[in-house]
Amino acid sequence: TAAIISGIAKLKCDGLENVLPGVTMELCLGYKVVAKTLESSTVKSEKYLLRFKALTSLLEMAVLNREAAVDVIREDLMKSIAEFLASDAFLDNEDCWSYISSAKVAMTCIGHFPDESIDALCKANQLHLRLVKLLNEASQSSVDPQVLKNAIEEDPMALAIPSKIGIVFDLLAEMCRKETVLRDLTTLEPRQSGNEIPLFIQLVLKAPSSTKIADPVHFAGAMRCIRPLLMNPDLQRRYGKYMVNELDLLEKGNKIIGYVTTKHFKVLYKNAERHLYFQNYAGSSSGKMRDATSTVMDLPLATNPFMHEVLVEAVNFLKVFSSLATDEPKDLFNMVSQQFNELGRDSILFNLLKVPSTAVQEAVMRALVDSRLEELDEDEIGQLMLMLNPEVCASEERLLGAVLDCLRGFLEKDGEAADHFRTNHTKSVILQSLRVLATNSARNTFGNLDEEAQKLRLSEKCLSVLTAASYQPMLRKHLRGPVAKDFTRIIKDHEMMDSWHATDICVELTWTGRHSDLLLSCLNPASPTCLRNDRKQAFRVFNRIADVMAGVRDDPEKELPISAEQRAAGEALMWNSTLMRKEANLLDDHAYEDQLEQQLIFFSFSGIERMVHFLEIPKKGAEDDEAKSADENFLRKSDRTIVVELQRKAKDWLQNLMEEAKDLHHTIRQDKKADVEREDPEMAEIDDVTVQEIGNTGETLLREVYSTLAHHHIAEKPDRGDRAEDKAAAAVLAASTALSEVEKTVGRASEGGGEAASLLDDLFKRAQTSSDKLWVPDTCPSSTPSMAARLQTTDHFFVPGSDGVVAPSFFLAAALRTIYAALTLPTTEAVSKVVNFRLKNTMMQLRLVLLLEKCGSYVDGNVAAKLMVILGSVLKLQPDQSRLEPESNNWDHCIGLVIAAGLAGRCMAILTPFMRRLGRDTELSVEQLVLAVEAVGLINTIARAVQHLHVKADPEVQKKVRQAMILHLVPLPTVKAVFLLLLYDMQVNTTSVHGKTITGNLVYKTIRWQRTHQLCVDTIARLIHMAPDIRYEAMELILQYKVMGRNQVHNSFLGDLLDRKETLRLESAMQLLLNAENGDDSERVLQLVWVDLAQETDKSMFASFSKSEEGARLLALTNKRVIVMGKSRHGASKRPCGICPPESFCPVGPNKESAFPLTELTRIICNSDPQLLVLGHIAKTATGALQGEKFLKVIFNQRDSRREFKERLTALSGTNSENRIPVVMDMLVGKTVKRKTTSRIVCTTWAFRESEDEAQGERLSYFVLTELNFFEFKADFDSWLPESENNTEFYASEDDYQGGESDNDELINTINSQAKSKFSQQIIEAAKSARSELFVHERRDREDPSLGERALLRGSRRYQPPPNEWLIQGLGINSHGVGCDTIWDELTPEQIQTDIEERNKAKILSEQKFYQIHGAPKEEQALHERKVIKTAQKAIVTQLFKCPVINLKEVTFEHGELPIVHLGFHPAGGAKEMVTIRFMDDATRERWRRYLQFILFKQSDSQTQWSRGTGEAPGADGRSVRPRSTASAKFFGGD
Q1: Measured between alpha carbons, how far is 1095 from 1103 in angstroms, rounded to an integer?
Q2: Does residue 1191 contact residue 1122 with C-beta atoms inside 8 Å?
């Protein structure tokens, strides 16, 4: 065995280090046995010594592998090593090589696992203390230097002890990494009594300070130990001066400098030569040492490795003082550093660059980083530049890396000399760095892992120089232009020359990579440097384009390289517009200007088309494989063929519909005469105003009652026979049937194209097979539906089993983010217009859909949801657009609606089997739920667009065509899917399927999906409004699920649904009233909303709403004015009474109480809550003189209505972005409430507080829920003031509360509990990082007010003409779309200018009225303004109720028609109080339900759990409230 081990140890073959880790445990066992044997033997056997030497040599080689080091630590070998190193073997020459190898094994393990290895060494026998004692013994027994010199010449083994001393110093230096070891070593008693200097410090200073003999090994080891002593602040203070004096560092005879100059170099080199011979000494008995002590004074000839170690440690020692020096003149380290400068440190360092050692040169480069640039002359800097020779990349990559690190340090330095260096040398540094990078990237290292690793390390060094320049605005100009000619070649070489799993060299993350033209050149198929569209390099380019367009800054705090997988994990997340906006605001001014330019260039020169075309290129080898597998009898469709066919199908369908509409007018006239007697006024659309009879009101009322109470309809549905609407539907049905037939001569499409080709076929098929029976119970309720392929996630960045092929969904996700950034975060409105213009092209829409189908999965990277968000944004009507002309722009908009309907319907169809389970046994994943919500959002956009479809002037024709179109775009199966999502949301997020206990799994899910309920209700209401023929089926579906399915459906939800539907009906009715009033349809209703408003007579909003029986009011926005309708004739009801005829505009009176034209609008002021809006408009006297401003203060009953209202109002407030009125934040209510609440606000709402005394009625209050307390405030708007023009801020959209920063892990882990793969874990980390960034931005905004000023400035800049507007002038973009007729179009330019001037004058008069003191100086004026605002803030809000959430013990949600919540507070030692809140709509109550669940769960401890139950709504005395005796859902707090 000994012979075998010795034989292996003598082998020097390649690959031995890879074999040894497999036998580490056997080597450890052998080491322990032999070490124990040698320790117990009085006479050491030569055989055991040779075996021990071989074992230590093999272990030294094995532990270079981390896995072998783990085995060494696990086998407790460190204990045996420590015992051996602390034994008498230290003073024995025979065990020299075994001793040195054992110490090297320990040091290598410390390098891999510092804490574990050091603990194991110290735990055994306090090794570090034993080694110091051994060093002390060796120093005391040392012989005269001359005697030792003679002995070395006679016997080389005399160098054994110095070699051991050196390796012990090295080991102690490694162990000093741990603070406890360093503390132990510096607390040892000194060598002599009365000396306060610890023994360890005296020993390490002995070798460098000795002038008798300079042993290189001893010197290098001691210098390694000195460095941690100097770097420790406490030891600096206590022993720094002693060490400096001992080494004469402040004297000209500096002992350290002498070893690297001619003074001590000769004797040092002689001893190094002796050590080299000793290392190669084979143990022969020849007594005399060969002549190996030649003197070397020429540095280029200094090849001795021991001398190289001395030089490296000496240079590192010099570096310590340079890095620790401060600007204080009397600072010790500064004084030493100045002394080194006077002795010519920099000259010495540059001279050492001649040494033929990469290690020495690297050390010099690291030291030069900390040197003073003032000390370097142009020749020395030129010498550095000459060292950046691209031709030596393959042989001297470590030296090049060190030079690059040095130059990077110079670029990052501060001071006048650094500025001079950057001014004169940055261009050459960047040019040389790029040359080195290009040459290095061209090295073909594929398959050679070692060479590849060295190559990538050098590339990273080059990249660090480029990024350092990228972070400095003044240097960025040097990174553009001809210097970047090799940019594309570098990325292409990385793709071709390196393995696919190699480290990413992210050259695109430099300032050069922010140039859109360079990035797009990487995607040019005609270029030889075009990347492959299935490799990570191309994905990185896509990701970079998206970052540039979105304004993502290059963060200097992020370490490069960032892997493509990490970037893909971030790309997979669904977009957060708030976070994206905050990120973009961090761009410095120079980067912002560049982003503006890059956005304009990119989108003006068809950047999106080029990205899409790149993705459409067939994958490498795909064409040949498909050709071999194709059937000869079939023709393969190309992607372009599929796109053209789909476009033709949609256009033909629309044309058929429009042609049929032309023939409807005559038919409708005839049908009306026959239908007068049997007209059903109960659910008839108000468009049918030609019917003057009252109708069967009794039957109408009964039907509404029975519908609400889940009874069947009294009468059968009328026979539809040959009615006009059925003729229209039949014609459309015939058209869709014909168009859905696929020609037999055309074969299957290309990869993924088959699914896209059937997109409209599936849509029309769903419309043809729709039945009136939407309630279809599960045939096998206990079975779990199979997962569709499009709903499965791969959880991999690289396609499993492929050779580095990237999943296509990540490319598409990056391309879609590029589009989304331009739509939502444009630097100028011109960019948004360009993108809208290009994406309205249905060819582009279909190409994106085709790319989606090729991804295979809809949920990977949320690509389908992201595409639907973009389609919804593009197809959404402009805020000032009141009608949709079908034939405009070659039918593009309507064709887009058909395409979007097909995509949304397909998504809902594959999700339906899972939603039908309503969360029982099967819950939708986060990605699937996002897909469902965005699909409904797209359907909502389609419904809103179809609602404004303009076919004929005849309202009857309009009605029939809209119904036929909406029922084919959104057929009944899709309608059912929308309702199933709503029902799923109700059941899953209201604890119905989570048991009776409110758990963390429930609450952390519920707060993420606040939008779902409101969106689904609004969508269903719009569908029922436009397709009245399905109103019975829709209501029956809801009631069937409630009764037969035993699902929780509140009557308040039904009431909210009917209210929304009736509001849309009243909107149609009001349009007819305006037509009759004006004699034409030039004034069109854009939006009609229910609001509560403060009366002019009462001023105080609180006073005006104390009479709740007056009910809400209707506020109308037309393309010409804002109209406030009269009070309701029938109290607070929002639905018709059933007695008034349809044309009576019931329940609201047809009179207009007040109105003002949009030309007189002066301000749009929003509060931080989603309901309050204040509109300022011009006030004039009876004679028409300008008086100032009047303010209309309204509270929207539905939170989603205000968002749409203010968007429309802003668009209508001017002719262009320059003179439109921006939305500003109200600084009174929001700020005052925030000051009164100490914790983070969770949600707010305006609602009614019901009194227990019926005589008192109810009052309108502002309710605030924070993380700790519940508040009720009264707002007295008699004290309200408009914000001063000096303090106006642009309005930021309200953010939804998503939990606190401490909830980060729980939120993300709850929604990704099934994530198992490495990539899915990276996605989780990306989600946590993104969520944490939101809170980081919040803190940054509070700490840095300039960020708010920057956002304000850039917000106004967005609406100004871009600097290079000529780029978009030739595209033919019409910013004033079809159907956007406003009041401004009727005015001349002179009249427009006059109106704008009057608007500004009115605001000035208000400023003077509220804030200014005539004739007062500026300082007094500012003081008065602050005083006025402070007074208003004190009076605007009054706190009526406050109680900690922890005292909330019971929450009750009534199931009645009104959305009511009862909160039972039980303060400790106080009386119980019941707070009853009536919300303005059911969706708001649902939001509060979820937030209450979340906060209550967070406030409760492990022993207190909230549970669900049913019962009657309680009162303050514990008895049920008399008017509310319906069954209610309750939350009970545990004791």
Answers
A1: 9
A2: no
Residues 1197, 1089: Cα–Cα separation, whole Å: 8
Q: Which amino acid is at 1378?
A: V
Cβ neighbour number for residue 466 with a 10 Å cutoff? 25
User: HEC string of 1316-1372?
Assistant: CCHHHHHHHHHHHHHHHHHHHHHHHHHHCHHHHHHHHHHHHHCCCCCCCCHHHHCCC
Interhelix angle 1318-1343/1304-1311, nearest 10 degrees: 150
Gap between the Cα atoms of 1120 and 1137, Å rounded: 31
β-sheet bridge partners, residue 713: none
Nearest partner of 626 among 754, 523, 537, judged by Cα? 754
Instruction: Please tell me the predicted confidence (pLDDT) of residue 14.
Output: 63
Give the tokens for residue 1310.
Answer: 């709850």
Q: Count how many residues are written for the chain.
A: 1535
pLDDT attached to residue 908: 92
Phi, then psi, of 1451 in degrees rounded to 5: -130, 125
Tokens found for residue 142: 């040392």
- What contacts 922, CB < 8 A, 6 or more positions away? 784, 785, 914
Q: Which of 548, 542, 539, 612 is nearest to 831 (CA)?
A: 548
The helix/strand/coil state of 1086 is: strand
Given the DSSP bridges, would you call strands 1161-1166 and 1172-1180 parallel, antiparallel or unpaired? Answer: antiparallel
In Å, what is the CA distance from 306 to each residue of 218, 302, 919? 10, 10, 72
Kindly write down the DSSP assignment for every residue of 629-685, as one continuous string.
HS-TTSPPBPHHHHHHHHHHHHHHHHHHHHHHHHTHHHHHHHHHHHHSTT---SS--
Strand order in the sheet with 1186-1196: 1152-1157, 1121-1125, 1113-1118, 1085-1093, 1186-1196, 1172-1180, 1161-1166, 1223-1225
| Three-state SS at 529 | coil
Q: What Cα–Cα distance (Å) separates residue 76 from each residue in 29, 85, 1172?
A: 10, 15, 71
Other CB atoms closer than 10 Å to residue 201's CB: what's the count?
22
Separation of alpha carbons 1448 and 1465, rounded Å: 4
User: What does pTM read for this prediction?
Assistant: 0.83
Parallel, antiparallel or unpaired: strands 1161-1166 and 1223-1225: parallel
Q: Which two tokens stand for residue 752?
A: 């993924």
Q: Which residues in the chain come in under a pLDDT of 50?
A: 143-148, 282-294, 626-636, 676-725, 728-729, 731-751, 771-772, 774-775, 778-779, 1096-1109, 1290-1294, 1313, 1513-1535
Pick from 367, 432, 440: which is nearest to 405 by CA? Answer: 367
Q: Which pLDDT does position 747 carry in this prediction? A: 35
Contacts of 657 (CB under 8 A, 6+ apart): 728, 731, 732, 735, 961, 964, 965
**Residue 175: how many CA atoms within 13 Å on its side-chain side?**
31
Strand 1507-1512, strand 1527-1532: pairing:
antiparallel
Other beta carbons within 10 angstroms of residue 27's beta carbon come to 26
Rounded distance, CA 585 to CA 1347, Å? Answer: 7
Tokens for 1214, please give them. Answer: 């001017």
φ, ψ for residue 460, nearest 5 deg: -65, -35
| Gyration radius (Cα) of the chain, Å | 40
Q: Which DSSP string corresponds to 1094-1152?
A: --TTT--HHHHTS-GGG--EEEEEESSEEEEEPPBTTTT--S--SSS-GGG-TTB-S-E
**Beta carbons within 10 angstroms of residue 45's beta carbon:** 12
Question: What b/e sequence results for 1452-1479 when a residue is b if at least 16 CB atoms lie within 10 Å of its CB, and e otherwise?
Answer: bbbbbbbbbbbbbbeeeeeebebbbbbb
Q: Which two tokens stand for residue 1188?
A: 């100032």
Q: How far apart are the first and last CA of the chain?
A: 73
Exposure b/e, 673-696, CB count within 10 A at least 16 = b:
eebeeebbbbbbbbbbbebeeebb
CB-based contacts of 417: which residues, under 8 Å, 6+ apart? 372, 373, 374
Dihedral sign, Cα of residue 58, residue 60, residue 63, residue 69: positive
